[in-house]
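Hi R.,

As promised, here are both runs. First protein below:
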Amino acid sequence: MNRIIFALGVCTASDAIEVLLINSLSSSPTFQATFNRESTEFSDTSSFTFFGMFLGGLTASLLNARIGLRNLLLASLSVTFVLSLLTNLASDIALYNYIRFIIGISIGSTIPPTFTLAALHSEAEERGRNNTLVAWFWMVGSIYISVAAYCMFEFSDANWRIFNVTCSLPSGFAIFLVYNYVGEPKGTKGGEIGLLDHVKSMRNLYNNVEQRRRTLLLQLCWFTLSFSTFSLLSVITPLFSEVGIESEYLSTVIFSSAALAGNVGSYLCIDNVERRKLLGVSVVCASLSAFLFAFFANETNSSKAWVIVFAACLFQISDTAAWNVVDIVSSEQFIERRSKATGFGICSATGRLGAFAAQFVNGGLIDGGVTKLLIIDGVVLLICGIGAVGLDERCSFLDEDEGEDDDEAEEHSEHKTLMDFIE
């Protein structure tokens, strides 16, 4: 079981690296020179990536229904790995943005099967902690890319293409791990399911009154949390530079490392505290941190730099804890086994739509100062807290076996054998 969690965690880390890539590259002189842009002028590139992730989240459930969770994850990781390497050949921003858009689709198709596989491979009493461990690896990915940027751009001013190859390696490693150590859970193997069946599965999420309420509240949480998170994460390095911090890459490393506290705290609390309360407290703390960040953002005095970094770290801690809770709750809120990936995919797509919208806000506000941007992030997080209040507590729908017959169990015996070997 530990190998499965590790493999899925590396998938999460590779996603984090791809999502945060433009933030690190935008401050690279060689990257700016290649595309003749300043560090704050790459919001459109981030928008292409997040819009691709939005489409990927929508199509993930359809692809899962046809090819299965494991095959979908392998295919998505493979597309991400190959195209990430191909971006090194881009010499104009239009081609680069197009490739990043396709990469965004593959990233969006990776996230739903990753957490659904973690939930389905876990016993009920271990599900919360296992999903939290998988979510931990987002921190690993963010530290990986921030340390790589610090070493390559702060000290050696390396070419951005070398950095890009370095950031592509975790996707290749994730492919190896998933192929060898992750099997397809019973009852989720793809079959000949058409578009109409897929649409019906999506409609089922909104037909029942209670299921519709849960789905819409989850979508609200995903949209608002993604908006505020990626509004800040996609520009954190140039933002540190804008507010007068001299070593923006080192500050980004500190900021990324702060996620450890959020991961540890959520891991210890996730099965001992009501999840909606934990989510509510986390987003409120993140909102207050954003307001504190905004208060000191216009201070260019170097003596205030530590306060700005401290406020950013508080945001990272609280935001990380909130995401851990949302990932777990999202894997538990859907009744039918086949609807889990569908529901998670819809929620993930809604989140990417929020991240996509955030890039337009960034593009319009960051050149005129970061205070307004941070205040908007704080307000949006408070809206997320309102949605968290209405969520159900500890849904147990994943524990229902859905009545699988012996023929279906025999059909998936090859995966059971693999899982027995791994565990």
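And here is the second one, sequence first, then its structure tokens:
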Amino acid sequence: MHFRGVPKALRGQLWAARIHAGSSWLTATMRLLWKYLDKMRCFRKRSVIPLLGALVTVLLFLNLYIEDGYVLEEDKRQLRESAAHQLNSERYVHTFKDLTNFSGTINVTYRYLAGSPLPRKKYLTIGLSSVKRKRGNYLMETIKSIFDQSSYEELKEIVVVVHLADFDLAWCESLVQDISRKFAHHIIAGRLLVIHAPEEYYPSLDGLKRNYNDPEDRVRFRSKQNVDYAFLLNFCTNLSDFYMMLEDDVRCSKNFLTAMKKVITSKEGSYWVMLEFSKLGYIGKLYHSKDLPRLAHFLLMFYQEMPCDWLLIHFRGLLAQKDVIRFKPSLFQHMGYYSSYKGVENKLKDDDFEEDSFDIPDNPPASLYTNINVFENYDPTKAYSSVDEYFWGKSPSTGDFFVIMFHKSTRVSRIRIVTGTDDRQNDILHHGALEVGEKLVGTKKGKQCSSYITLGEFKHGNIEVQNVHHKISFDIECVRIVVTASQKEWLIIRSISLWTAPPAGH
């Protein structure tokens, strides 16, 4: 393989980049090419452009050349090793035979250890995977916390699926007897299912790749864990609208479902793949159920590559959710003291967890606008959620505004707006007013409320107004922050929180 048409000196550098850069060879090659072209900037444009075209053609050819299998001996060796790992088990082939259809479920015959198929679809499935631990077992406490922290109305909308994923069937049978005794009424009501995926469906867990220099037993543990979760996700595909991943050693906040529904409602109209309600591990990760087949396939494809929480991050990125969307306060807390891996100590705690999270705002679906000069990507929407982000604008002037325009008129009971942060305490709104409006009309600049009334003035950068629905006679269509005096400091709006009231007469 040759870089024909490329100067000899550059050709040697390109080969070196190809050999040493590994998977990033294309990036390294492009850097060399641009560096070379930079040295040639004294040439006339008509000389550089044909050369650039020739170089790009060479790169495209080289890329196709490698993808077709003509690779260096080192790459061939790595591919042979990878192929050996992938083909070392007939069970592996059996599991992966339907990967061409990523939207379809994986063909696994599950054992129902407790409960039976659901007669109707629920709002939320909560999935837990559990194996035998050397020290401690927290599964019963976790299930109890889920049910105890939910109201009767919330219980109607959830189903908890426990995957007992240990290959020790005697342990599974013993534990399911305990579960059946303690939670019999939830099983009868269709709120709790216990399942098991037979060992015969698992890919090989021997001779796995030793990525990250992990010891062999740890690689086996985390690889099996990926498959455990994949089979759990696969089972839960059609049970509900949303799916939440938990671990088997978790405590829940009170009325967590109501808090989550508020967040989901506030995200209507915006794209998301994974919402996070805890910053730890696999705890409190929420998905659309329609994405579960793809996620299950994804975990199976890369089961031996890396831990599950890392794979979840890659999956989110592949589906074009670039940023983490994590809400505060956290709704779930890790309570286990010993890890399921060899019983080692695991004292991780989520310091954002709150036992009583019922005060989470409703923040109805809305569009946000401002004429304040926005700094970088600190856009207005970042102030209107429980995500740990904020709006940041350059020095506002008198008359500047920040508007929340509801998608439909809303009865609001309470509004709280906080500006500035702990490390930027001067970037507050020094002089401003809070207004609410009605009567949306179309203008040359789009829809705007034609009538506003003032609810109050900002004090020390903050404002909170209670019983809004008793102070005004109309359902609100717009909430507006108005700057009443120019300031040289920039403006951070850290959070905009709105609570709705029931319609009049309820």
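A quick note on the second one: The chain has a mean pLDDT of 79. Let me know what you think.

Best,
J.
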